[in-house]
Amino acid sequence: MLPERTPEMITANLTADSGQDICRVLVVDDEPAILADYRHAFLAAVPDEGAKVYSDLAAELFGDSSEAVPAQGAIKFALVICSQGAEAIEAVRLALAEQRPFSVAFIDVRMPPGIDGVTAAERMHELDQSLNTVIVTGYSDIPRKEIATRLTYGNFLYFQKPFLADEFMQLAWTLHIKRQRELEYHALNENLRDEVERRSVEIRVALGKALEGARVKSSFLSNMSHELRTPLNAIIGFSDIIQGQHFGPIGQARYVDYAADINSSAQHLLNLINDVLDFSKIEAGGVALNEAIADVDEMIAFAIRLLAVRAAQKDIEIRHARLPQQALLNCDERRVKQVLLNLILNAIKFSHAGAAVDIRSELGADGALRVLVIDTGIGMTPRQAALALQPFTQIDGAFTRSQEGTGLGLPISLALMKLHEGELAIASEAGKGTVVTISIPAARVR
After folding, report:
1. Disulfide check for 415: which of 4, 70, 157, 282 has CB 3.0–4.6 Å away?
2. For residue 445, what is the DSSP state?
3. pTM of this prediction?
4. Which runs of consecutive H residues, i.e. helices, occur in 30-164?
5. Using one digit for the tens of pLDDT, what is the confidence trace for 238-284?
6. Distance CA 121, CA 85 (A)
């Protein structure tokens, strides 16, 4: 059992009321001559001279504005000397308890009869992972490779005795600055982690509220659409009967015209409600694809037949260029038809009377299927094309504002294409027309 002793403490170039930054140095060595060298390195008279040498060298390397350059006489040391490893471990423990940790420890390897310096360094580092460890030895029973293997942390250095006092003074201060920067870095990291966690909690709360709001909105729209659809269907049905005079002729022809207007207005309102409900479902993630095999050209032909009357009213010719061979898609047929109807109807609405709308299917070299809807109508600027894909947005302009609709046709079509892992792109030029292209990935094409 080693006799208990108190570590020797030397305060160098330090006054009791000093507010200066202090480099606390721990020396662990049992050789009196070496301890004298350490005392000489950190005595009050030497650091001022050493500080100037250090300051001049640092200024030459880093420039005068470098934070690593202390003002002359500003280097402050507090030196604690221990002659045994166990004593040094206890000194590190006490320094941490007093919140005055060491910046650097200079440790000899052989200090009989106690534990060796490498073992002491390992235990000291377990207590204080920010401690810079400098192994200083003239002869070691432990090979350097083993020391390097055992002291694998990044704060380890190795020196051979004898050493120069000024060099170790400068080394100690440099390691002290390094440790200060590391602690600042870790403190910033902790603050950043706390801030990220705080913001994450806020985002989770906001997301929960948004999801609840979306659920409530979806439920409201679903109930409201049901309440509106029921009377609208009755209005459409009865006005259709009156318009067709199914139960006998109506005396006044004007009543037939009124019935046609009622029917048209109810159909328009029902379409608006369906658009809003569709977009709400898609936005809330409530649309699931009912996938089956469908012929792309047959779906295009179906959409053209449904819109033939609208095209004829404006004397617009719809031309359909079919593929040379049949192309089958694995898709939700009803949803793809909905996209095609939206795109062709837009082309009709924004084309001039007597123009033509071209629809072309093509297979790309990548195996993807593309359908192009091409018109020579009013066209759009790049800004307008971007706005057209935003929900509830209608493009500026007297002609476009006169067109009926919610502005949801293209956003719904884009969302439905994304559900099919596909894309929707707009290429347009104001006054020259628009090309809208939908793409279905090769994995869905047969």
Report:
1. 282
2. B
3. 0.50
4. 32-42, 45-62, 85-97, 117-127, 144-150
5. 888 988 888 888 888 888 888 888 988 888 788 778 877 777 777 76
6. 8
